[in-house]
Structures are given as C-alpha cells and as structure tokens.
Amino acid sequence: MLKVENLSASYQTIDGDVHVIKDLDFEIRENEIFGIAGESGCGKTTLLKTLYDIVEFPLVIDQGKVILSGEKNGQKFSYESGQIRKSWWNNISYVPQAAQSVLNPIVRLKKQFLDSIPDEDKKNETEEQTLARVAKYLEDLSLSPDVLESYPFQLSGGMRQRVIIALATFMSPNVVLADEPTTALDVVVQRGILMMLMRLQKQFKNTLVIVSHDMGVHYQITNRMAIMYSGSVIELGDTEEIFSDPVHPYTQMLVAALPRVGDKSQKVGIPGRPPALKNPPPGCRFAPRCPKATDRCRSEVPKFREVKPGRFAACHLLNEEVGL
Ligand code: SF4
After folding, report:
1. Which of 33, 115, 151, 295 is deepest in the core (most CB within 10 A)?
2. Does any domain span residue 26?
3. Which pLDDT score is estimated for 34?
4. Residue 117 falls within a domain, yes or no?
5. What percent of the chain has pLDDT over 70?
6. Sheet holding 2-13: strands in order across?
7. pLDDT for 124-180, tens place per residue?
8. Which ligand 1 atom is at minimum distance from the Cα of 250?
9. Which pTM was predicted?
10. What is the pLDDT of residues 293-314, one digit of tens each?
C-alpha cells in the first residue's frame, strides 16, 4: 500500500519556492490500478517522483511523507520517504515519461537487464542462468528474447516502451508507477501497452499507478482515480463513479468536455487557465474558473474530505452539503 500523508513539496528557484503539491492525504490500495489525472503542470509528475522517492534538488519535501508498506515472499516491509529507494525494483518500480531516456543507447539491453537485477536475486546463479530467466520472462510477455542483443536505438518507440515495462516488472514489485506510459505512441501501440500493463497487474495482483493527462486511459484501465488541479487532489474515488457522477465542479466540467460515441454536440473546454503555481489565488485555486464560486471560495481553502462513501473531494459546496 502507498500512503500519502499530509504531503507538500516545492521546487526551490532563484525567484523563490514554487509549491507544486500541497497538503495531499490519500491511500493507494494493494491490487488496484490507480489513476492520477489532471492538466499539464498540475503536479502529477512531481507527485509520482515523491511516491518513488526521487526527491532531488531543486525538488524538496516541505512536510509530510509517503509510506510504502506490504508483504513480499512472506516478509512484511515498510519504507518511508527517504528510505523508499532501498526497495527500488524489488518492491516498487517506475516507468518514467520519455522512457527511452532511461535506457543507455550504447549498452546492449541484456547488460541493462543484468544491471537492474539486485545482486541478492542473482547470487546463486550464473550470468547465463539469469539471462535465461530474463529471456523466459520476455517470452511470457510475447517479446522476442532477441531484443536482449539489441541496442535501444535499434527498437521502435513502442518496443522500447514494452522493454522498459518488462524491466520494471521483472522482479514482480508490489507497486509499479507509470508516468504517461502511452504518450507519443500511435493509437494501436498505445492500446497494446495498456493491455500489457493490465495483464501484468492481473498476473502479479500488485498495485499499478498510472499518471496520464488522457482521461480515456483512466476510463479504460483504472479502478480508482484522483483528479489533480493546481497541486492538489480535488476529487478521488471509484473511476466509473467519477465518470458517471462527478461531484467537484472541475471534474464535472472535465467530464462534460469529453467526446462520447454518438454524441454530436459541440464540446467546449474549461474557460480560463490554471493559476501560476508561484502565485496562486487565495482560497480555492479553481475559484477564478468555477461557475459556482462564492465569496467563501475566494478566501478559504476547501478541505479534502469524504463527501460520500469512498468519494473524496475538496469543495466548500460539497462540504456544506454533508455538514462540514
Ligand atoms: Fe468552486 Fe467554490 Fe467548490 Fe472551489 S470551493 S470548486 S470555487 S464551489
């Protein structure tokens, strides 16, 4: 399980701190596909970096922490921010945006696989035996083991992405984080990548966290999802319910703007732009674009609360409805 506790993080710049994520509090469960959605610049990738513990200057955690806990091979484990990297590959792994950039273009893939497998896991076998295990795993994923002899630049974008996913899942980690895993791929390849991620999650019964700006990706494969806006999670719940009955005004407008099969009506985007993170408005950050904004919204930050069973949102109107 991944628990995000009261987490805020910022980038330190010469012009001052930019608070990129603020007061996040939620849990990602075992054996679920969890989506993180939102417009570009809303803090999705920064959140994913804090989940994976790649917090390096100029990114700093201002408060709170992430806790990764669970059980693997009968052993319980628990790591907090600052320790999570000890569990990389084994308990948690990461498929980054622009995945090709993590593969060294001038090193054959077999060496990159061997280097990513912890010594502990290969101590009782020869290099050939380890590579045989990798080849078998690739075959199970319908990938030719011949790719092990290739350099990354010899593969297509879709094939490189599949190899990265194979690399990230080889140790059957409890949690896999994927940042925009289908961006820059054509629609057919995208579908293949999503199917591969779903199949692996089903096989390992682990947690898959998908960050994507594409609501269609979330609709297709996630069980629950969080919607981010300007550094905060503003709605979280069961994906189907969020699409069929969004409760936060931002989510309502986001869902209303989505094209649907057979619907020929003209779709309009959400007017206005997200606020600059360096100088956000006081109160609710969505207020300048929200048709339901009141004076309270413009001065007081709404709390993120459970507004009905399993559904969380940050909106004064919803909090008032449930007496908060
Ligand atoms: Fe709109 Fe107010 Fe709710 Fe913010 S708190 S989403 S401004 S109604």
Report:
1. 33
2. yes
3. 98
4. no
5. 97
6. 16-28, 2-13, 59-72, 75-80
7. 899 999 999 999 999 998 899 999 999 998 988 888 889 999 999 999 999 999 998
8. 6
9. 0.93
10. 999 999 999 999 999 999 999 9
- Kindly state if the Cβ of 249 falls inside 6 Å of ligand 1: yes
Work out which ligand 1 atom sits closest to the CA atom of 291.
1
285 touches ligand 1 (CB under 6 Å): no
Atom of ligand 1 nearest to the CA of 298: 7
| Nearest atom in ligand 1 to 249's CA | 6
Q: Which residues of 167-198 are buried (b: 16+ CB within 10 A; e: fewer)?
A: bbbbbbbbbbbbbbbbeebeeebbebbbebbe
Task: Please tell me the distance from the alpha carbon of residue 148 to that of residue 135, in angstroms, as a whole number.
Answer: 8
**155 C-alpha to ligand 1 centroid (Å):** 47
Is 271's pLDDT higher than 90? no
- How far, in Å, from the CA of 312 to the mean position of ligand 1? 14
Q: What is the mean pLDDT of the chain?
A: 91
Residue whose Cα lies nearest atom 5 of ligand 1: it is 315
Backbone phi and psi for residue 5, each to the nearest 5 degrees, phi listed first: -115, 110
Strand duo 59-72 + 75-80: pairing: antiparallel
| Residue at token pair 């408005």 | 281
Question: Does the beta carbon of 297 lie inside 6 Å of ligand 1?
Answer: yes
86 pLDDT higher than 80: yes
Classify residue 140: in a domain, yes or no: no
Domain span including residue 279: 2-106+151-321
